[in-house]
Amino acid sequence: MSATDLEPGELITDDWRIHGSVYTSQAVFAAELERVFRTGWLYVAHESQLRNPGDYITTRAGLQPVIVSRGGDTGEISVMLNRCRHRGATVCQADEGNANFFRCAYHGWTYSNTGELRGVTYDQAYEDLDKSSLGLIRLPRVESHAGFIFASFAAEGPSLAEFLGHAAPYLDLIAQQGPEGIRIDAGYHHIGYDGNWKLQVENTIDNYHFGFVHRSFLEVLADRVGQVPPIVRNILTNDEWRTIDLGNGHSVHEFGDPKTGNNQGQLGDLPFNLIVFPNLCFVGAQLRHVLPLSANRTEVRLYPMLHQGESDEYNAEILRVHEGFYGPAGMGGSDDVEIAFERVTAGMQATEHDWLIMSRGLHREEQMPDGRVVGRADDEVPQRAFYRQWQRSMGAS
Ligand code: FES
Ligand code: FE
Q: How far apart are CA 304 and CA 283, in angstroms?
């Protein structure tokens, strides 16, 4: 059976079989761009990247290149398509910077840092060009929560507060990590892999894999400290560790009480992992922004979260820990790319029986009075949380 034979409501069964085309089909991917990325709230940047008037970063919203900029006059944050109104070139090439103007390199049209078209070169060749209507296209809604900036292509819809719901208190806790908060202004490193963007999102809170995929890391750690790290045992037996479907596609893995819970002894690490639907993840001391490129190609930008108010030495140590697991020569990130993303994608080319099983712990999920759904640390509660919202967004009943 191919994806074209299945309606969105048929791609996931009631007993949590997921059709492989959810990960491999360009038709499903095209539908996601319309129904997931053009309808809801998307994380775009953190306020610490845009402290001063004129500061900007470039990123993507779905596949669409955007500039997130703090205006020079008002200090307001705009999210604008990075596309010249003349003949379509990107007007800003840098990842980040400070600029009063964005000047298109093709024919020199110039836009203010809030997107107004300010200058058209040799404009006498146009009979009646209405510059006031030719600014960079802005996303109609931009809102922040705890310093995290989100934007939406949809002019109408739930507010950011409504959308974040039970995920909001966790963003508040992240924002309070350092004595004076956090900063995400140390740049990022990125990985690219041949596989679907959802593989990275669902791997962020997949505690089941840790002892298998990261076995060599655990062995190195055991050699260094003289004993097997307790993480795998905790994942399977610690009753305080739990996964929670927070609603609206968001989910968390708590190591005990998120306010006081331990962080596995890693400097700067959060006492929980968090997924904010559809493509924002927090793990360790890292913000992870998952950027789809096609059904089978993904970019992930990994931003270390530094602690505002701590010394440079302290923050350098956070960076070292981050690099140790996730960096290009780190002991963990490349294992996930190889096994959890690319081997999965390779295996899913065997489409004769094209179904995955996502029912781990389904029978022991507990519904709380406020609607949250709780499971054990190694259950696939976060994945089901994601796909419940994915199905709603894709138009499945
Ligand atoms: Fe930008 Fe021509 S495409 S000025
Ligand atoms: Fe992993």
A: 10
Report the run of H or E that residue 69 belongs to, with start and end. Answer: strand 64-70
| Three-state DSSP state, 58 | strand
Q: Are residues 145 and 184 in the same domain?
A: no
Structural domain contains residue 100: yes
Whether 3 is in a domain gets the answer: no
Q: Answer yes or no: are the C-beta atoms of 352 and 346 closer than 8 Å.
A: no
Task: Report how far residue 254's alpha carbon sits from residue 246's, in angstroms, rounded to the nearest whole number.
Answer: 12
Q: How many CB atoms lie within 10 A of CB 5?
A: 9
Which ligand has an atom closest to residue 207 CA?
A: 2
Domain-located, residue 26: no
* Same domain membership, residue 187 and residue 126: no
Shortest-distance Cα residue to atom 3 of ligand 1: 87
Regarding whether 244 and 356 lie in a shared domain, the answer is yes
Q: How far apart are the first and last CA of the chain?
A: 21
Cβ < 6 A, ligand 1 pocket: 84, 86-89, 104, 106-109
Distance CA 81, CA 196 (A): 24
- Domain-embedded: residue 25: no
CA-104 nearest atom, ligand 1: 1
Query: Which atom of ligand 1 lies nearest, measured to the CA of 108?
Result: 4
**3-class secondary structure, 149:** strand
Domain that holds residue 297: 166-393
Burial (Cβ within 10 Å: 0-12, 13-18, ≥19) of residue 69? buried
Cα 214 to ligand 2 centroid, rounded to whole Å: 6
pTM confidence score:
0.95
In tens digits, the chain (397 residues) has pLDDT values of 454 568 888 999 999 999 999 999 999 999 999 999 999 999 999 999 999 999 999 999 999 999 999 998 889 999 999 999 999 999 999 999 999 999 999 999 999 999 999 999 999 999 999 999 999 999 999 999 999 999 999 999 999 999 999 999 999 999 999 999 999 999 999 999 999 999 999 999 999 999 999 998 888 888 887 877 777 788 888 888 999 999 999 999 998 788 776 666 666 788 899 999 999 999 989 999 999 999 999 999 999 999 999 999 999 999 988 888 888 888 889 999 999 999 999 999 999 999 999 999 999 999 999 999 999 999 999 999 999 999 999 997 5
Are 386 and 249 a contacting pair, CB within 8 Å? yes
